């Protein structure tokens, strides 16, 4: 990111033959930006060539470049533009192949110009050619702007965008950063406004030219000799000095970009699928990540039992299946029962197992009427044949597993199988709830793995102890890989977190107070929960929840978030909106999947989704919005269209919590406070999943905090509930790029209740 990843000189000036070279400015900015606008007196593609690694990184992460250039170019560059506008076939360049892209851009040969033409033709580089409307001068601006989607850096100075200017000349650039104060913001806006006005064809002081009008030679009538000299110097430098040893002050910046690209290539290699086509079980990528190997070793050394506490998005599924794979490598069989929260996840785990070449997969769910026969066939084969020769994977939902008949069927494997089979529980905190908890003693399989981003059950010491003991953990997890670890090691993307304080209207506050006062009678300040879960409490909690969810002041804040995003990006692509679900009350010690396999919508929730969808369309009626709710058909097609930007915004309740991968998502808006922190942690993990074209994620969190008079009977309860809510805000803010924003935004409320975010 421009603000956090770049070391900026205090003066914000970059000067040739100094520690702060102009080429260093362009290199660092390109590596950390997704938009580059350039207004030039003279352009040469040789600048792309010398900044090859930085440009490769920029393009790989989805970067787009817009240029306004003078009407005089080298013959090579003019030819490129002519080709890009023609109907000629241009070779396709895979921007997801960073290694190849970097190599292509570093060579000034036919492939380089083919690549440049392809980038122009596909609007990754857009060019407008201008000349002064009056007189014989030239367009001589030398300014521009970088953006990463969150921050902007503009620049102005003497430096053209050419190899000569970046390497040979004595040049200077002054940068203006939007975090440096309003004065710099004014300068940035001025450069941005001038660029946009000219680029969009609204500058009546210039003439807009087509490629065929570009000059490749300087005529006698051309008054400015420096342009001719620039082209001549540039051509000489390109022809004679491509292999010339660069000054150390310049080469260090280019080396830094090279190291960055090589590091990215190494990380990409970790996620490339193996090309070998075989039915033999194998890891689906080149090899497990180091932390996944460590998880296996810890599990093996713990008598093949363990609880893996791993952040959402770090590959919990792969980590556990790698343990099953290692069993296969040693004993030449694999046997597993896998429990998952939802039917959606049954299908997802099936696909992951197939990627490992695990076959003979039985899905125990309402969608597979033959599952009992399939399980019976497996048991029969184990009895008739050598037990070790039979391999299989059985996947069931917790809801199915809790049913007595199904439980007995799955537990009736012989004693040899009970020693050999690996029992995997996804979202293992569910093992400590309800009917599953009652069945723990009946599970005789010795090999066990529990998976969860949030294994601990809030305010449920007995459930926590039971789960930890079941997985043989004692007092600590067998393996832990935190979100901080994942972000710092580059396996999850970095993010900005913006909590927004939403206040209730007087009318809403009056109704809220009435309900809150009644609820306070059932709340235990000592246990931090309600003393009963009878219908009276549930109805009151539901009423309280709906006041929070329907808070009218949310609408304006939600709209302002969208408007700001639209202003910055020109669209609302890759946005997730989590809308409150109204069917059940929030319960601070409940789990997402305790009581239902899926998430059913209701009229109340549907109306909320429609309301938020309309607000989105009010911001831009051209934006494509799709509801992603329970029972929706063609889920895969919708997610694919979202990834391509054809559907720009997805609105949902809980369905995007159900193991749905949306790595292309760049912004998430949480429109409901909740007492269930696990829900938010899962959602954060989804938005932080890596994607080649995603540089940074943004999370907006609408937080409602009613201010209760300290003399009121319900003050202690509300303070306790707020403290629980602020824990989530703390956890989100502390790992973000802008932790100070959360402190500033909620300072008044935290001071009022004498609480702290940090």
Highlighted features:
3 domains, alpha/beta, Rossmann fold, globular, 758 residues
Examine the secondary-structure arrangement and name the CATH architecture of the largest domain: 3-Layer(aba) Sandwich
CATH homologous superfamily classification of the largest domain: P-loop containing nucleotide triphosphate hydrolases
Total beta strands: 23
Rg value: 30 Å
Biggest pleated-sheet summary: 8 strands, mixed
Question: Uncertain runs with pLDDT below 50, 5 residues or more?
Answer: 217-225, 583-601
Mean pLDDT: 82
Q: Give the spatial strand order of the biggest sheet.
A: 1-7-6-5-2-3-4-8
The level-1 CATH class of the largest domain: Alpha Beta
CATH topology of the largest domain: Rossmann fold
Instruction: Report the span from N to C terminus.
Output: 24 Å
Basic shape:
globular
The level of helicity is 40-55%
Q: How many domains in all?
A: 3
Strand content: 15-25%
**What structural class is derived from the secondary structure elements?**
alpha/beta
Please render the helix and strand layout as text:
Blueprint (H helix, E strand, L loop, with lengths): L12 E3 L6 H10 L3 E5 L6 H5 L1 H9 L3 E7 L4 H11 L12 H8 L4 H12 L3 E8 L10 E5 L4 E6 L5 H6 L3 E6 L4 H18 L6 E4 L15 H16 L7 H22 L20 H12 L3 E6 L5 H16 L3 E6 L2 H13 L5 E4 L6 H14 L7 E6 H5 L1 H8 L3 H6 L1 E4 L8 H6 L7 E6 L8 H10 L8 E3 L1 H6 L6 E8 L3 H15 L2 E2 L4 E2 L4 H15 L3 H17 L5 E4 L24 H17 L5 E4 L6 H9 L5 E4 L14 E4 L6 H11 L9 E8 L10 H20 L4 H14 L6
Parallel strand pairs: 2-3, 3-4, 9-14, 9-15, 10-12, 10-13, 11-12, 13-14, 16-23, 19-21, 19-22, 20-21, 22-23
Antiparallel strand pairs: 1-7, 2-5, 4-8, 5-6, 6-7, 17-18
Helix pairs in contact: 1-3, 1-10, 3-5, 3-10, 4-6, 11-12, 21-22, 23-24, 26-27, 27-28
């Amino acid at each position: 990111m421009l603000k956090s990843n770049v070391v900026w000189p205090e003066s914000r000036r970059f000067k040739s033959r100094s520690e702060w070279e102009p080429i260093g400015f362009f290199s660092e900015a390109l590596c950390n930006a997704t938009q580059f606008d350039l207004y030039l007196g003279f352009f040469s593609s040789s600048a792309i060539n010398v900044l090859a690694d930085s440009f490769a990184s920029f393009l790989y992460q989805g970067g787009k470049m817009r240029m306004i250039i003078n009407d005089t170019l080298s013959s090579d560059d003019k030819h490129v533009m002519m080709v890009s506008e023609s109907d000629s076939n241009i070779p396709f360049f895979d921007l997801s192949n960073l290694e190849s892209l970097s190599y292509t851009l570093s060579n000034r040969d036919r492939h380089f110009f083919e690549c440049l033409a392809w980038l122009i033709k596909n609007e990754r580089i857009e060019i407008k050619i201008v000349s002064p409307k009056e007189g014989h001068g030239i367009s001589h601006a030398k300014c521009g702007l970088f953006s990463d989607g969150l921050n902007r850096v503009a620049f102005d100075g003497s430096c053209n965008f050419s190899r000569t200017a970046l390497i040979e000349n004595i040049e200077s650039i002054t940068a203006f950063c939007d975090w440096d104060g309003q004065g710099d913001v004014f300068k940035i806006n001025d450069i941005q406004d001038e660029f946009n006005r000219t680029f969009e064809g609204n500058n009546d002081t210039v003439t807009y030219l087509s490629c065929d009008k570009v000059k490749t030679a300087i005529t006698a009538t051309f008054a400015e000799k420096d342009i001719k000299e620039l082209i001549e110097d540039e051509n000489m430098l390109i022809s004679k000095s491509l292999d010339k040893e660069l000054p150390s002050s310049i080469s260090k910046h280019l080396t830094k970009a090279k190291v960055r690209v090589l590091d990215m290539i190494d990380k990409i290699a970790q996620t490339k699928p193996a090309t070998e086509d075989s039915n033999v079980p194998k890891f689906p990528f080149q090899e497990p990540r180091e932390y996944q190997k460590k998880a296996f070793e810890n599990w093996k050394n713990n008598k093949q039992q363990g609880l893996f506490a791993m952040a959402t998005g770090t590959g919990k599924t792969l980590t556990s299946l790698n343990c099953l794979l290692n069993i296969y490598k040693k004993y030449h069989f694999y046997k597993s029962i896998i429990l998952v929260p939802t039917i959606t996840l049954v299908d997802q785990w099936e696909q992951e197992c197939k990627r490992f070449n695990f076959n003979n997969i039985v899905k125990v769910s309402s969608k597979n009427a033959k599952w009992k026969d399939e399980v019976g066939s497996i048991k029969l084969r184990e009895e008739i044949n050598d037990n070790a020769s039979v391999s299989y994977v059985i996947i069931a939902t917790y809801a199915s597993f809790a049913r007595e008949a199904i439980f007995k069927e799955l537990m009736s494997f012989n004693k040899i199988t009970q020693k050999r089979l690996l029992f995997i529980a996804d979202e293992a905190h569910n093992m400590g709830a309800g009917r599953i908890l009652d069945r723990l003693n009946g599970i005789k399989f010795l090999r066990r793995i529990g998976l969860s981003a949030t294994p601990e059950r809030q305010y449920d010491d007995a459930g926590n102890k039971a789960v930890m003991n079941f997985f043989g953990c004692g007092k600590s997890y067998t393996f832990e890989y935190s979100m901080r670890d994942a972000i710092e090691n580059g396996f999850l993307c970095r993010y900005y977190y913006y909590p927004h304080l939403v206040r209730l209207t007087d009318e809403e506050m009056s109704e809220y107070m009435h309900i809150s006062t009644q609820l306070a009678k059932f709340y235990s300040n000592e246990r931090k929960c309600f003393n009963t879960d009878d219908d009276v409490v549930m109805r009151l909690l539901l009423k309280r929840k709906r006041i929070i969810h329907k808070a009218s002041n949310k609408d304006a804040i939600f709209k302002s978030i969208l408007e700001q995003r639209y202003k910055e990006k020109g669209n609302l692509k890759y946005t997730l909106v989590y809308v409150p679900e109204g069917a059940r009350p929030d319960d601070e010690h409940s789990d997402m999947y305790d009581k239902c396999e899926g998430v059913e919508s209701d009229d109340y929730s549907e109306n909320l989704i429609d309301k938020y969808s309309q607000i989105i369309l009010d911001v831009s009626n051209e934006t494509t919005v799709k509801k992603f709710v329970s029972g929706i058909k063609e889920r895969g097609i919708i997610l694919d269209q979202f990834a391509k930007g054809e559907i720009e915004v997805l609105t949902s309740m809980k369905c995007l919590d159900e193991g749905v991968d949306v790595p292309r998502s760049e912004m998430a808006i949480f429109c409901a406070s909740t007492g269930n922190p696990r829900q938010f942690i899962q959602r954060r993990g989804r938005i932080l999943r890596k994607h080649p074209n995603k540089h940074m994620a943004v999370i907006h969190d609408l937080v409602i905090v009613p201010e209760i008079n300290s003399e009121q009977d319900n003050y202690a309860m509300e303070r306790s509930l707020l403290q629980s809510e602020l824990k989530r805000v703390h956890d989100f803010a502390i790992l973000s790029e802008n932790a100070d924003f959360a402190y500033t935004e909620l300072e008044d409320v935290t001071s009022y209740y004498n609480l702290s975010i940090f």
